[in-house]
Amino acid sequence: MNSIKIMVDEHENILRMLKVVRSACYGIFNDDDICYEDFYDMVDFIRNYADKHHHGKEEKFLFKEMKSNLGSVGNNLITHGMLVEHDYGRMYVSNLIDALERVKNGDEESKLDVIANAISYTHLLERHIAKENDGVYKFAEKSLSKEVLDDINKKAETFEQDAEAKGTQKNYLNLLQKLEKKYLY
């Protein structure tokens, strides 16, 4: 198993969801009613597939080893770059949920905050994914020893198998397809 290839593939699924989020926001911009169930499904995907599942592997395995084995460059790249961006993403999603609740409770102006936080999340993740795919992952593959990469792959494989046993990947890819059919086609 090549854990970095799996993470790149997961990025493609996350990018697909970002298109759904953008389309749903465009609907709000055009005065469509907010479908709260769909937005909560988008948040569920973001929190559990993109963050817990995907970022979980990065943070627990790859980034941990990069910080431990690649000196100050690896530590700074991860600590002051990738992990900060993960935290910004979590903030945007938390703010999005708060804004959805305010709109649900009658605060029409908070539609601006729904759009602002959702779109900010999409922009952040698009740039973040490009940095990881084009820089961070390649740096890791080039700079970490074969033994360390093999260890990451082994841990990621167990993580993937545990998630598959729970139906994580299947559940969220089905949810993604459902939302794509509604918002993109």
Automatic annotation (TrEMBL):
Pfam families: Hemerythrin. It comes from the Bacteria. InterPro entries: Hemerythrin-like. Residues 4-139 form the Hemerythrin-like domain. This is Hemerythrin-like domain-containing protein. The lineage of its organism: Bacteria, Bacillati, Bacillota, Tissierellia, Sedimentibacter.
